[in-house]
Amino acid sequence: MRPVEGESIIDVRGLRMRYGSTDVLKGVDFTVRSGEVVTLLGPNGAGKTTTIEILEGFRLPSDGTVTVLGADPAKGDEDWRARTGVVLQSWRDHARWTPRKLLAHLGRYYVPYSTPERSRPYGVEELIAMVGLAEQADQKIRTLSGGQRRRLDVAIGIIGRPELLFLDEPTAGFDPQARREFHELIQRLTELEETTVLLTTHDLSEAEKLADRILILAGGRIVADGSADELARQVAAEGQVRWSFDGQRHVQSTAEPTEFVWDLFTRHGRKITDLEVRRASLEDTYLTMVQQHESGRADQAATAFGPADAEAETEDAR
């Protein structure tokens, strides 16, 4: 059965994981709904991979409740697995196969799980074109470049037309053009295929571009949950408006950038040039939230992007 839009696809409550005497996850709570692209961010060692492996059913938690596609991942049957796709950080089997033969072989495993609502698998030629491997379709896998191999990893992860896709550092090794094509593929999967996506990445610009919602995991807990813009507002309530007027550069911090810009144009019209409105970037936000948590100041208001920066830039402009 196809998930209803807005339905909970992943539900995590009180998730804990202990290795020996070390608590890696200390009570993680979050929900992912149908059709969302959610990015899980966190410093190395925060527990991102552990969390994903639990959701995929590859690791048992120490405590807590985890539901994925309506089931406990640790007890998921073959039908449940056919509804999920996984793109690992690396995958190095079948070096003597070609992409076309490997995808055709793997696709056969999904045929019994095809439904009227979601036919499985993808056609091999369609999938090869989707991931940009048409020219390499009949090359030995061992001859593929790192970026081409990563495209094949993505194709393997989505061959079964998953309802839920896990992506672990999906664009590692991609050049800028391949990264852009991958982003377009994810947008296609979510918009046309109604695929829900949970990904981890160290590329914050990628997270900002792809994610409907961002989760920040630090110290074994989710310390932030929201869109990039919502998180930026938590860190820095004010935005910056930058503009030029009569040959001089100006910068103003304001809690209402839209209203401020409207007033500027009302007063000065086309004399305003080089207009730019900025809020804290996701990188600013992420680093500030993690630093606050690590220093024990998670509940204190902090500004990573504010008046002091504005004043400094004004001086530079002069």
From TrEMBL:
Q: Name one GO biological process term.
A: response to antibiotic
Locate the transmembrane regions by residue number.
none
Q: Which domain of life is it from?
A: Bacteria
- Region annotation (Disordered) maps to 296-318
Localisation per UniProt entry: Cell membrane
* Protein name per Swiss-Prot or TrEMBL: ABC-2 type transport system ATP-binding protein
Q: Does the keyword Metal-binding apply?
A: no
The protein's organism comes out as Cryptosporangium aurantiacum
Specify the protein's topology with respect to the membrane.
Answer: Peripheral membrane protein
Gene3D superfamilies named among the record's database cross-references: P-loop containing nucleotide triphosphate hydrolases (3.40.50.300)
